[in-house]
Amino acid sequence: MDRNFDDLVTEAAAVSVDGWDFSWLAGRATEARPSWGYQRQQASRLAVARAALDIQTGGGEVLAEAPLLPPTMVATESWPPNLEKATRLLHPRGAVVVADPDEPPLPFAANAFDLVTSRHPATIWWAEIVRVLEPGGAYFAQHVGPASVFELVEYFLGPQPEARLQRDPEREAADARAAGLDIVQLRTERLRMEFHDIGAVIYFLRKVIWMVPGFTVEEYLYRLRMLHERISAEGPFVAYSARTLVEARKPL
Predict the structure, then answer these.
(1) In the 8-state DSSP scheme, what is residue 199?
(2) pLDDT at 1
(3) N or C: which end of the chain has fewer CB within 10 A?
(4) For residues 5 and 196, is the Cβ–Cβ distance under 8 A?
(5) pLDDT by residue (tens digit) across 112-148?
(6) Which residues does 79 contact at the CB level (< 8 Å), separation at least 6?
(7) Contact 143, 189 (CB under 8 A)
(8) Does position 5 have pLDDT exceeding 60, yes or no?
(9) For residues 111 and 135, is the Cβ–Cβ distance under 8 A?
(10) What pLDDT digit, counting tens, does each position of 149-206 carry?
(11) What beta strand segments (E) does 36-145 contain?
(12) How many CB atoms lie within 10 A of CB 103?
């Protein structure tokens, strides 16, 4: 039997959204994964690095899965609940978690790292990445691509033509080159997502706070109820995420 709207809303509005673990969505939402396997590739690079920095690490979940971390491993994060979670996960691995506001400058000396990584950074400060990388060092990251999950964003906010132009991978690559990096690889993919109940939608929007800024159940209750009825009648709400793989190197 389908669960009613009020029960789904109450549950999803109460669950913790700390960290960057989406396991609560198991059986309730799906998202195809990029073909390149970012976590596996990040782990292989960390295994041979001497000093690495993971920017905007979230709750440290992705970094903590790496089998081998370099002798010097630092992660930055700005959101206090994520900082606490990342510290619990990463300190036992010998990694230092640094509170950082995600604005320049990074709190590190020039040429401090031979590897800088990031998964889904909200902001990308190319000049700072170049500064903290040693000559020959690499930046390896998975960025959110343009118009990611905009089927859901525009359901709540209406058309967003200007926002659709943001996070363009070619523009990001041009900015990286302008800052002094050489692009080694740049790949993009769009990936199918399905939301099977309104609770999954609420949880996702509470967790990924930049999708619908200021999202609250109360403010969007009417649209949520309409979407619940649509999912009940037609099946999962389908959207498409966008992902960009970026690998760049600082010249010697």
Answers:
(1) H
(2) 39
(3) N
(4) no
(5) 999 999 999 999 999 999 999 999 999 999 999 999 9
(6) none
(7) no
(8) yes
(9) yes
(10) 999 999 999 999 999 999 999 999 999 999 999 999 999 999 999 999 999 999 999 9
(11) 51-54, 72-77, 96-99, 113-119, 133-144
(12) 10
Place of tokens 């859901």: 152
Tell me what pLDDT residue 18 has. Answer: 83
Instruction: Give CA 92 to chain center in angstroms.
Output: 23
Look-up of token digits 């790949």: 187
Write the CA distances from 215 to 35, 71, 157, 164, 209, integer angstroms.
31, 41, 10, 19, 7
Beta strands in the chain (DSSP E): 29-31, 51-54, 72-77, 96-99, 113-119, 133-144, 182-195, 237-249
Separation between Cα atoms, residue 132 and residue 138, nearest integer Å: 11
Name the 3-class secondary structure at 36. coil
pLDDT, residue 19, reads 78
Nearest to 59 by CA among 39, 95, 85: 85
